[in-house]
Amino acid sequence: MPDRDIKSPIWHPETVEDVFDHTYKEKEGPKPPTVIVWRNVLLMAFLHTGALYGLVLFPSASVLTWIWFLACFVFSALGVTAGAHRLWSRRSYKASLPLRIFLAFANSMGFQNDIYEWSRDHRVHHKYSETDADPHNAVRGFFFSHIGWLLVRKHPDVIEKGRKLELSDLKADKVVMFQRRFYKSSVLLMCFFVPTFVPWYVWGESLWVAYFVPAVLRYALVLNATWLVNSAAHMWGNRPYDSSINPRENRFVAFSAIGEGFHNYHHTFPFDYATSEFGCKLNLTTCFIDLMCFLGLAREPKRVSREAALARAQRTGDGSHRTG
């Protein structure tokens, strides 16, 4: 599959607006008070308690339920990685209508806010990374960047900068706006009903196990795998492409988040569809997009050349780059 060689992807005309803004300055003086959203705290507590119970039930599930659990995990993760992230947030490739519908359903199973809101927050994250305007600012610590940011009110700068972003491409996508309109219903259907109903109805799994394993436990694991990109991949690992930024190359996160852990590369070349110099290596999402291109359901993947990545590593990396 041919790659598009973009030596300076940050200058691409349709994406220049939402790359890192060096002109942003945090406001001087005391920070705004932290306001806890207790509803979210309780919901997350219930979810993770249910997930722990699902872990206890996991050995009692049938082999078919284990397979279904894994299938739901990958499907819902792709809705975030290949869908909300690489397609709609980063615009790193183009997808046909059937693929966009498929990814929208997968995204609803992932239940991490609708595509429009997820993409808006992710663009703010890239544009103002590690500042007060970053929704999950890793400078505020592991807990905040992992889950804490969802348990408190957003910093005023996050809201302000999010409102100023150009999001016309998302608003023009009928699949994105349809999912946003019916998001709650789609989440009930895809995140909870379908994962529970199929094993119970098709092969007679216990309804109790079917709910707590492929629905609740799977959902919590996908959430935490995604959150590790915001937390662990901003704290632990090497920085071979740009040592001046926090995001790191973290292979454990890349494995758990099906390819999203090569974060120093991703923040250096944010519009590369593979988010990694090494293509499909530990990167199931890239393999999926390659397959969709082969089948004619996706096209025009943006790719940074190996030479450009190596040159950037030699110029700004921490010396840890490997050529193999």
UniProtKB/TrEMBL annotation:
It is a multi-pass membrane protein. Its cofactor is Fe(2+). This is stearoyl-CoA 9-desaturase. Keywords: Endoplasmic reticulum, Fatty acid biosynthesis, Fatty acid metabolism, Iron, Lipid biosynthesis, Lipid metabolism, Membrane, Metal-binding, Oxidoreductase, Transmembrane, Transmembrane helix. It comes from Cyprinus carpio. It is found in: Endoplasmic reticulum membrane. It is an enzyme of class 1 (oxidoreductase). PANTHER family: ACYL-COA DESATURASE, STEAROYL-COA DESATURASE. Residues 85-270 form the Fatty acid desaturase domain. The chain crosses the membrane at residues 41-60, 66-88, 182-202, 208-229. GO terms for biological process: monounsaturated fatty acid biosynthetic process; response to fatty acid; unsaturated fatty acid biosynthetic process. One of its GO terms (cellular component) is endoplasmic reticulum membrane. The gene is cds2. The histidine box domains are involved in binding the catalytic metal ions. Its EC number is 1.14.19.1.
